[in-house]
Fold each of these.
Amino acid sequence: MAPVFRQFLPVLSLACVFMLFSDPAHALRCGSRLVKDGMHESRVIELCGQPVSRRHLGYVLRPYILKRPAGILGTHYTRHVYSGFHQELPVTELVFNFGPRKLMRILRFEGGQLTLIRTAGYGYHEKNR
């Protein structure tokens, strides 16, 4: 091994370990709790509180995928099988305001499952009602 490579090997190894334990880029923190793709809408509201805005965007057509056991009894793996059918899923968009010093987040749900997390501009102080 080249001496230069040996010098950077510990640093490179440490960087790889940190990348393994970092949050995914498509995740959101609500306080100390993590919200990520695939979570149900009710669970996200439970973790983050009520959104400031909720819009129904329409419907999306997705293939209906069956999950079946993949192998011998005792294995926990599943295989996904396309059934030939489609399902119509409602699309909802929730906007969360975390205050004026943090970015607002727009969460898109298809069929109640979180599919997309985007950032909006900075939040704002909500007036007392």
Amino acid sequence: MTRTNIDIDDELIANVMDRYRLGSKREAVDFALRRVARPRLTTEALESLHGIGFDLDLEELRGGSRVIEWE
């Protein structure tokens, strides 16, 4: 690991520290960099999710015009 001096927006770093309950600026910077630099999902990884039991009505989730009648 290398030691580096950088200028950081105090408001942004405080926001990250509060939101993710991080104890130091170093932790916050490390956390943010790891989130940004993590590998993207490949097409193969996404296709491997096919058939895992996703059973939701997308129109209902989107707020479609489905009406529920109460008896």
Amino acid sequence: MKSTESSTYDYVVVGAGSAGAIIAARLSDDADVSVLLLEAGPDDGAFTIRMPAAVSINIKRNRYNWQFRTEPQAALGGRTLYQPRGKVLGGSSSLNGMIFIRGHALDYDRWVDEGATGWSYADVVPYFKRIEDFCEGADPYRGVGGAIPVTRGWASSPLHAAFIEAGQQAGHPLSADVNGRQQHGVSYFDKNIKGGERWSTSRGYLAPRRSRSNLQILTNVAVQRVIFDKRTATGVEVSFGGGTQRFSAAREVILCAGTFNTPKILMLSGVGKADDLKRLAIPVIEDLPDVGANLQDHTEVHVQYRCTQPITLFRELKPLKKLYNGIHWLIDRGGQAATNHYDTGAFLFADDSAPHPDCQLHFVPIVYNNSVERRVDCHGFRVHAGPMRPLSRGSVSLRSADPRDPPVIQPNYFTEAKDWCNMRRIVDLSRDIFAQKAFDAFRGPEMSPGAGVRDRGAMDDFIREWGDTGYHPSSTCRMGTDDRAVVAPDGSVRGVTGLRICDASIMPSIVSGNLNAPVMMMAEKISDLIRGRQPLPPERVSVVARAGEKRQTEEAST
């Protein structure tokens, strides 16, 4: 690509991640339109991206990762927290833990109450089903034939079976399918792994379409800003190789750059809070004060125990075992490297008055010094435990008018008392599960928080020292119909034309679970809206908010 080139496409899609790859692929299904997909990172051909057990490698590598950090968090002892985000074809779907969770039906019905007309659970069920090729077949809740294989975790270790049994011994229900009728309970989790390989949106959506003449994909191209003619988006300006280039969009520019980079690009383009833009000498195109506001993220702590038997993943991390596991995977995509090891987990109630489960546990048979970068040299097991609907709100803002500078990420973790209360309760729930008979044969001393951490002050000190992000930032370009919303329910940016957003930034509020599946669903739905197609017909299904209760989804919104 030369700096003198000038190209026009019908659609320019910014970011080839969980949403952008899907939108570009679906738009290219119409043979009479041209689509340009721009990705700041490289191609996703590395074997470490496809190898499920290599997830911790890529999360730390800057080649595929924006490697953001938050501002110092006052409630967490002034610590800055690491925020990895995908910078590669497939985006964070090429880096994440491959856990496929929709969230709860009531999350989407709440979205409607928050102004996201057309996004009730009945409205989005058919799009969730369209994404997936579920290993256990189709039913009213699940789909087959989609681009993303979804497989079910299993008891790959006796410790996973113990977790499921212990959860029930502690009085929690068993969920047969957390993406089906009942999320509440302990369960085997779904994952985007098939044949021992990760399936990202690049693998599922782009790979089958890359030879199309109407779809061009450019990697290692960073978008600096959207170009406007008055209030109409007409293209983008990008950087590459020390120079700049402009690409024109005859119909629309679609930002899919993620919760941090999408508001950054908007503000650099003159769309945001006018006073803030003027201070940086950025010409104001549209005064939208809530661009970058409303940041929400999941937090977690790790409740960990030594294991009295040598059956954890610690034995797989010896140099010769790692070599063996890598060779095994390279030969036949089998063995310990062929899974993410997050086979089991739970959705429980920290607050008994909550309308549906408000905390999530991810169980894994290994222990760390509360950091994926600092392994503890012993056998052990842990849960990643955290609240799903925090009340604390943060923001994303510009550090300067220079596109090369990372955004200012201020999550304001634990600024609300309820978030502290819920986290304390979640630690208690986790300890109670590990105290059950099913773990008697495996349970050694508690490593974290530690047996001596019992009173409120000690627990708060533990949270302050070790509380971390769950890597699920959202909602910085909130969707709605009120005057403060950044985008309308069809993803179009308010106050301008020719510009749309689709990624986790437009969620009205964070959902109760991992975010990758919801973002893929949103991309499928918004793709239909961009193409002028009628949305898929709503599907009403019976859902359970709490085991023993039954409820129908709300009427599909219009």
Amino acid sequence: MSNTCGGVMSVRFVFSLCVVFVLSSCAVSSDTETPICFASESEARKVGRKIYDKGFNHRVSYWVTGNSEKTIVGLGLKWGGFSPTDFCPQDQFPVLVLYDQPKDSPYDKQVVLKWANFVFRQMHNDMKTSG
């Protein structure tokens, strides 16, 4: 009887580990959302710089911390130095929202990225509508 009980316990343990592994895999999401793609690397660079210079980090900080005066260290935009075809169709170039979270950061990485992508898209839409 002890062999059977031990076998059942082993199966339950392995099953529990599998469930935990599968659920934790589902909870992990990508660090970048689907980026906005541009016709040229030059256009991606121009848009990325313009959005960043117009207060991207401070706007994200407002949504994450409630204080737009704070800077979120490690938050930025990237438009070069990687293969654009990993993110966009052939002959298009993305601007990526990145958060290289410092070890001592008080901010949740997924929360920062969620708001950063939201702010980036809003600022891009504002640029398109303002001419």
